[in-house]
Known about the structure:
- It contains eleven helices and ten strands.
- By secondary structure, it is an alpha/beta fold.
- It has one domain (3-260): Aldolase class I (TIM Barrel), CATH 3.20.20.70.
- 45% of the residues are buried.
- It has helices at residues 3-21, 24-28, 40-46, 72-82, 99-105, 121-130, 144-156, 196-201, 220-229, 238-241, 246-260; strands at 52-56, 59-60, 64-65, 85-89, 112-115, 134-138, 160-165, 180-184, 211-214, 233-236.
- An eight-stranded parallel beta barrel has the order 1-4-5-6-7-8-9-10, surrounded by five helices. Strands 2-3 form a two-stranded antiparallel ribbon.
Amino acid sequence: MNILDTIVARKKEEVAARKQVTTAEQLKAIPAYQRNCISLKERLASGKTSGIIAEFKRQSPSKGVINNQADVVDVTNAYAQAAAGISVLTDADFFGGSAVDLMRARVQQVPILRKDFMIDTYQIDEAKAMGADVILLIAACLSINEVGEMAAYAKSVGLEVLLEIHDDTELQHICGDVDMIGVNNRNLKTFEVSLGTSLNLIQQLPKDKPAVAESGISSVENIRLLEKAGFKGFLIGENFMKTSEPGMAFLEFVEALQFAR
């Protein structure tokens, strides 16, 4: 099995175990489930923000530990000053994240993406109960029908959907209930990274769904290139998290981006 298959297999075990502890109905009774979500799609489409979806990520399968010292509230306080949205990893085994990280980040008044490997509608209810505004669906680990069903369910409970693809064979996963299309420049099966993935796919993406470039973005020049190609959003995590002060690294990056624009 490749790493994606391994993660999905483990995720199925996790979800089955969590269902035995907390039912979907119990999740729906949590106060955060009732809150009105903040639209990431609108913020990206407006062009009035940096366009950066700044990510809080402690580790990854490809890089190992990136930063296990940073405090999620301190970092996202800085992110919230200029980010279009914030992404929080909630996968524990492979990324060192947790639901608590997202719930602590919820003090920020910007859209929050639950970054995880979603394979069951139960996780959508979890995301809403945590205080997320957006969920990620990864085409590489879902069928076309599963994307359609999960996107529809997310929309029914008030969440927006970012669909992640990484090649043209996954374009058919795009459906009406998807709000934004992410292009992952990192192949989740091989971990190879190339901005060419985004540049090659942008012209095939629907114009009514903001396009988000993900992974491998490490400079203002990268963003300017992707921006000119038509991308509205830029998901960046490791570039900030690998520093001793991710929040400061983010703010300095945004300042340089604003100057370049």
